[in-house]
Amino acid sequence: xxxxxxxxxxxxxxxxxxxxxxxxxxxxxxxxxxxxxxxxxxxxxxxxxxxxxxxxxxxxxxxxxxxxxxxxxxxxxxxxxxxxxxxxxxxxxxxxxxxxxxxxxxxxxxxxxxxxxxxxxxxxxxxxxxxxxxxxxxxxxxxxxxxxxxxxxxxxxxxxxxxxxxxxxxxxxxxxxxxxxxxxxxxxxxxxxxxxxxxxxxxxxxxxxxxxxxxxxxxxxxxxxxxxxxxxxxxxxxxxxxxxxxxxxxxxxxxxxxxxxxxxxxxxxxxxxxxxxxxxxxxxxxxxxxxxxxxxxxxxxxxxxxxxxxxxxxxxxxxxxxxxxxxxxxxxxxxxxxxxxxxxxxxxxxxxxxxxxxxxxxxxxxxxxxxxxxxxxxxxxxxxxxxxxxxxxxxxxxxxxxxxxxxxxxxxxxxxxxxxxxxxxxxxxxxxxxxxxxxxxxxxxxxxxxxxxxxxxxxxxxxxxxxxxxxxxxxxxxxxxxxxxxxxxxxxxxxxxxxxxxxxxxxxxxx
Length: 511
Ligand code: NOJ
Known about the structure:
Layout lengths: L3 H10 L15 E3 L5 E5 L2 H4 L12 H8 L16 H15 L3 E5 L2 H4 L10 H16 L3 E7 L5 H5 L8 H16 L5 E6 L1 H10 L13 H28 L2 E7 L2 E4 L5 H20 L7 H13 L12 H7 L6 E4 L3 E5 L13 H5 L2 E3 L16 H14 L5 E5 L11 H19 L4 E7 L18 E3 L8 E3 L1 H12 L1 E3 L16
Parallel strand pairs: 2-3, 2-12, 3-4, 4-5, 5-6, 6-8, 7-9, 8-11, 11-12
Antiparallel strand pairs: 1-15, 9-10, 13-14
Subunit structure: Homodimer.
Protein name: Myrosinase 1
Keywords: Glycoprotein, Glycosidase, Hydrolase, Signal
């Protein structure tokens, strides 16, 4: 039996409205609210290069790519990447070409604090970010800073990284340096990018640095410490800087949507949601705080069966629950795709080995029939975005949401109609949720330009601008999607059929 959810998705994928056999035409041109802001996003290791320049020290991605180069799909690294360390003025020029309201980028901790600690602040690192921020502000482009986008100083990793509870203080010290130096001009702060990817992929598996592969244990230690570090940075901003600097601070979570495979899997899909992004959203955005009850119960029960004297999921004390709850002014959301979930007897075989998926006892997968991008995870299911935004609204009392990433990968090329189609469908799904009351305030495309896509190196391209990695200048050329995105920003309208009549990029006056 197929559930309503599945039926709906198949129907929408066929382009048939649920009312009958008609192509969706109701929303050919849709308006964004006047106050809505548009941007684009990047992250330090993925674009900056200058990996050992002007006093920057080694981070975990430098270490991984230098010691195990071919763990990366094309054996590449971020030593030069897009060379934004030198080409930031061109980056700002692209922001102006597109007409961005804001630009989301991250700070490199080891560029600012080469010893990892605030005993020595690297003036050249501070200067680089000052230059970038000032160049953006010259043209009214609002900076949105992510403090941590995956490039932990290597030395901190050697001391356990996110599995060491002292990281709460290390991160707080670093955050304070950032508020102190940039907070006079930066009004949007994001503490962490995608905790799930940091902890599950980096500590539980081998799919991100530091590739610890300590399933069902290290990833949960990481989760608690990361949430506490986030909350500490939030409280520092709130208590020491908010009044004088007048900005907002939040966290960015990655969240997929999960359909049940059949009606019998509805509970399983809801539980996967709690494990996957509820793990980070529940402690911060729910009224009760703490890890989701289903995680606490399941992991405690499995741990006992496996002979552990206590749950592998660390506990929060009542004071810690209060400290983390409410510690975000907005819900930063990175969303790309959707999965289907099933649960059956075949999943009961791994009981003796601690693992995240064994703890949740459910299996997410994607349909091979879904349209897809170059990245294995990137299936095109816009209805999932609508459902996700609806769920966030309903579960967490309609928090302000910024879409801090959404985008589509190809293998390169300037005519990227698939990317354009993806953006249109996902923006339209977002507007559907907003029509029903979701408080979405802004949207950032991932990414303004191609960049180092972690384990996939430069093989998967997410850019509105193509980057030529063969040229020493790392030449950036607008793709067709850049012209379409620009038109959306200029008109504040989503026109499903607009065709750019030029491939020459210009800067509109007044921006
Ligand atoms: C999420 C991450 O934040 C970003 O670094 C990555 O490149 C994109 N997803 C695309 O995979």
